[in-house]
Amino acid sequence: MHIGQVYVQFITGLLTRSFSIKERIALPQDTSAETIALQALTHLVTQEKLLDRFMALTGLTPSDLQNGATDPDFLAGVLDFFLANETDLLDFCEAQNIAPEIPAKARLKLPGAQWLG
Hints:
Layout: H1 3-16, H2 21-24, H3 33-46, H4 48-58, H5 62-68, H6 72-83, H7 86-96, H8 101-108
Helix pairs in contact: 3-6, 3-8, 6-8
């Protein structure tokens, strides 16, 4: 099963199961959504080809990246970038030694996930 399929099943499960939102989007203990997103941003800026693609797709500048590190909306966008590409997501997760569903769970805790409510 590909990570894209896992992500779709995860989201579908969130929409159809009847358990608390806190349970649905639980991250590993002592890990915040912002921490996962900052790890993703750090990974992004250390991978030249990945960073070039991100910058080309978003039109952001290097100073935008630096300023965005404290903006939850920007961090949500960084996670969206990784979640949109299975290879990039798996590379990031392997580098951080985290399960592939963790970035998806983190994304659900950041701005832009209003459909949860």
